[in-house]
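Follow-up to my post from last week.
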Amino acid sequence: MDLGAGWRAAGACLSADPDLFFPIASGPAAMKQITKAQQICARCPVRQECLEWAMRTPETHGIWGGTTPEERMRVRRARTAQRRVAARAAQAHEWPLASQIRAS
Ligand code: SF4
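User reply:
Got it. Predicted complex:
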């Protein structure tokens, strides 16, 4: 997977109307644009790279990898929660070791 910017040259959106991917309004007209953009993303050969790039950057606008900003925010929050749970589990696992070291 190319997480540089090289994947952009293969994007299915290159020949599409950029306004579809960055609707400036909300409501039914914007939803229609978003749906069209997501249909283009669905057949894009670099969708995964695009999505990962958008997840790794503070990209808060537009359709990337077939996702809306709100969808990416939900995924970021879920990933953050998973990392916190993993960190707590790792810390809980280390505590017994720390007390053994102090006791020795
Ligand atoms: S996934 Fe969508 S926004 Fe990303 S490069 Fe492909 S068509 Fe463009």
